[in-house]
Amino acid sequence: MAAAPAQIGFFVDATRCINCKTCEIACKDFNDAPVGRRIRKVRSFEGGEFPAVFAYNLSMSCNHCEQPACVEGCPAGAYSKRAADGIVVHDPEKCIGCRYCTWLCPYGAPQYDAREGRVRKCNLCAGEATPVCVAACPMRAIEVGPLAEIAARPGSTIALRDLPSPQLTGPSIRYRVRKEARA
Amino acid sequence: MREWPLILFTLATQLACGLTLGATVFETKARPSDAVLMRPLAMAIFPVVAIGILLSMAHLGRPLMAWRALVNLGQSRLSLEVILTAVFALLALAYSGFWWMGRTEGRLALGAATGVAGIAAVVAGAALYTVPTQPAWNSGWVPASFLGTAVLLGGLAPAVLISWRENTGLLRIFLGASVAGSLLLLIAALWMMANLSRRAYDPFTAARLAGLLQLLTSRNSLWLGCYVVLVSVLPAAVAVRLWPEERVEITPFTGALLAAVVLGTAIGRAMMYWLGTGYEPF
């Protein structure tokens, strides 16, 4: 799958995130997601050995990958990657609820909603000027913009020791983390 | 275990594939007058695969939209599996029908074609799981396990569910097939352990695989042991017991043996889904 010329991506500044989960709640509210279905998730990671220990928080939803396994794997054609901005869009009306995408995504982005019998995921709040997670974050730790610009920022990285290899799907996300968290 | 429809679907498809291969081998080796021996099992092939397909619908959140699973046939491995299983089911319908009606003309060729379609469906089913984003599954042990189950059940079911009448050579072919299938499943289990022990390409995957191996060999070691005993040791013991027999009579005991082996394959399949699902960093 060819990379979109103006691929949009997330920039998550883990040095700012305080794990307040405001982004998660805003996303849940916007998407009317039921209890247990977390289209955006914040998680803490810890590492190191005493006395050199560290911790950091990451907020993540769909990473709108450059080679999205969900688009290729979905048997119902419910996923598509927009040519213009590279956003991976999921159409719930086409979803049959087979959950194969939940096995294929290395980041656990597609969330199965048993109430509706189908999967939901981040469509980057398609139609909204600013995604609600970005607008809601009180620490301004989440940004969205052209991936080329985000990737060129000082301190921007893609490979973290607590996440799957970015070589699997080419996630359109970059992080700013302390150096111990890098892969 | 929310994946029970998939456990039953995969086992049913593999059982039907094995029975098709068994019926085809039977037809090439048995005397025409003995055809009645295989008839009930050959007639069961289509119902088995049809029930498996119906059960797989229970896995879908929206079963009435199941037809959409064919939309992405060019790209999706799941679409390919669906179409190949449907072809297998259609051929199985004709093949079981031939046995039901006692029609022998063209039955051998139809059995061979159905067997090939069955193998294709089983392999396509295994290919769903061998994806890089699922490191616990992404190895040859999954297809080896699927094919091993087909060979084991396809060999063992006729061996213990048919009253063999001095047809020792054919009985030994089926017993040999069941032992071959059980050996393949044993190799697949060792392969799975080796896959979980391998050096992974990133720290996250390495930690995940090491955690699964630790759980498999501690908390779930009893299930692993049951699986190996039921699908490897038990079929071998049955083969040793029946190998010298000239006549085999169907008894509740032989039926219970087969049920125990099927239970073992279900335990193994449940462990496979446990290993893969839940793999996510968040």
Describe this structure in words.
Chain A contains five helices and nine strands. Chain A has one domain: Alpha-Beta Plaits. The two termini of chain A are 26 Å apart. With 183 residues, chain A is an alpha+beta fold. By secondary structure, chain B is mainly α. Chain B has two domains: 1-128, no CATH class; 132-282. Chain B has ten helices and no strands. At the A-B interface, helix 2 and helix 3 of A face helix 4 and helix 8 of B.
Strands in their spatial order, largest beta sheet of chain A: 8-1-9
Strand content of chain A: 15-25%
Global Rg of chain A: 16 Å
Gross morphology of chain A:
globular
CA radius of gyration of chain B is 19 Å
SS-derived structural category of chain A: alpha+beta
The CATH class of chain A is identified as Alpha Beta
What's the domain count of chain A?
1
The CATH architecture category of chain A equals 2-Layer Sandwich
Find the count of extended strands of chain A (DSSP E, 2+ residues).
9
What is the share of helical residues of chain B?
over 70%
Percentage of residues in helical conformation of chain A: 10-25%
Largest sheet: number of strands, sense, barrel closure of chain A: 3 strands, mixed
The CATH topology annotation of chain A reads as Alpha-Beta Plaits
Tell me about the largest β-sheet of chain B: none
Count of beta strands of chain B:
0
Which two chains form the greatest contact, residue counts included?
A: A-B, 42 and 34 residues
SS strand fraction of chain B: under 5%
What is the distance, rounded to the nearest whole angstrom, between the alpha carbons of the first and last residues of chain B? 20 Å
Low-confidence stretches of chain A: none
Features:
heterodimer; A: 183 residues; Alpha-Beta Plaits; three-stranded mixed beta sheet; two-stranded antiparallel sheet; B: 282 residues; mainly alpha; 10 helices
